[in-house]
Amino acid sequence: MAKHEVLTPIPGLFYRRPDPDSDPFVAEGDAVKAGDTIGLVEIMKNFQPVESEAAGRLVEFLVADEDEVVAGQTVAVVDDGA
Amino acid sequence: MKRVLVANRGEIAVRIIRAVHDLELEAVAVYSTADAEALHVRMADEAVEIGPPPAGRSYLDIAKMVDAARATGAQAVHPGSGFLAERFDFARACEDAGLSFVGPRSEHIALMGDKARAREAARDSGVPTIPGSDGAVDGADAALAVATEIGYPVALKAAGGGGGRGIRIAEDEAGLRSGFAQASREASGAFNDPRIYVERLISPARHVEVQVLGDGDRCIHLHERECSLQRQRQKIFEETPAPGLASETRTGLVEAALELCNAIGYRSAGTVEFLVDAKTGEFFFIEMNTRIQVEHPVTELVTGVDLVAEQLRIAAGEPLRLKQADVVARGCALELRINAEDPTKGFQPSPGTVEELSLPSGPWVRVDTWMERGTKVPPFYDSLIAKIIVWGDDRQTAIERARRALGEVVIQGISTTTQLLAELLREPWFATAEFHTATLEAWLEQTRGATEADGGA
Fold first, then answer.
1. A3-79, what's its fold?
2. pLDDT by residue (tens digit) across A54-78?
3. Would the CB atoms of A11 and B379 count as touching at under 8 Å?
4. What is the pTM (predicted TM-score) of this model?
5. Which of B84, B177, B276, B338 is 20 to 30 A from B61, alpha carbon to alpha carbon?
6. CB of B267 within 8 A of CB of B95?
7. With the C-alpha atoms ordered B433, B434, B437, B438, is the resulting torsion angle positive or negative?
8. Cβ neighbours of B341 in A, within 8 Å
9. Are residues B147 and B284 in the same domain?
10. ipTM
């Protein structure tokens, strides 16, 4: 069982949903595929997706919706079950 | 009026505080915790923290702005540009709180913020709008009838969305029939709304806008600005006068803008935007911006009118001091926007700390900025960090001065668009002003393509 950290390459504000009226991209405990978008980071009015590199189960988010993040920060943990 | 709350941040907040001080009034700044050390906070006579970095909980929070104005004894609120500047509910909240809103009346912000109503207001005052179907058409046959009336080529656009998706160009009847089905399918997929409207295609087109000032009773214009050089609908360069306009087009534009503003009794500074057909000189109303604009300094340099100071005087209840005959434009002014972005990496935003800084000055060079050595450019807001505005007695002189000014720029620690602007100023098509709204993106495509080819060789 290996845990993978999902990092944001850029600083900004982290969002768990595509827009305020939508459901989160993924909930804690949900399965994710490699390349799945798990959140967005807003930087200078641009929105960039944060993707999981690993497939598995998203164990937990380490930052809350609309939290400030710095470049390289871990935003979530994915367990590949292996 | 003694104190003015400046409900904004960045270079526009600094610009407004300067006008407030020029009129010997006091300025109150607001700031999110990300901007606690920013220049506008230190320049103001008083500053109020209004919340955490997310704009929704600070610079976009109407209640906090009104509370800050009340708590500091401000009589007026200047919204700047961006954030709450074109929110009619903010203007209304200020009006309701007995604060003078340094801008138009809230109903005019609401009117111009509604695309369909704005277009109707323009047409009612005799201002040309882009010929088209006026809303969605009922099927391909109806689209055909409209196209026959307005003439080809036409653009088929999604009624339910924007951003270029669902747009098809039709050159003739056959193209319209096939394009309509495609556009409708694409609109359906993108916006869950298959409705299509038809408009005459204006291409190539220039984006030209007219600066106006009004006091609610009377309006004047302060000539036009050329703003065609845009990337993803963001302007990076503006100039006045607009080069290559026939004098009857120029006259027609400013008269149309005045007709619209006089018809509604517009108050404060505003900008009426037009699309000008580059081949025929025909022009069409696009929208009206009910705020001071980023590019306002070029108008100030050629007319000698301080637009922000005039806004403040009007907000204090003074009648417009200027008559149309007082507004004389002299020479040429250019504005170059320096953004914290990396043009070599797809314009990726580049927040960070400004480690080294040297900005141009000298004859006829103005720099509007909030940057200092050590400034931390936060990732939360707009990427505009400085505007370099130059004046020359003709366009060629202004371009040479702009080249000199850009050559003096040193910004280290973050990536900026400075070098890209310097390259732009060296382009022959720029020197002869042979450009339109699609030119900048085509040029970027071409030059970036060339860079990649070089790298591969």
1. OB fold (Dihydrolipoamide Acetyltransferase, E2P) (2.40.50)
2. 999 999 999 999 999 999 999 999 9
3. yes
4. 0.92
5. B338
6. no
7. negative
8. 44
9. no
10. 0.85
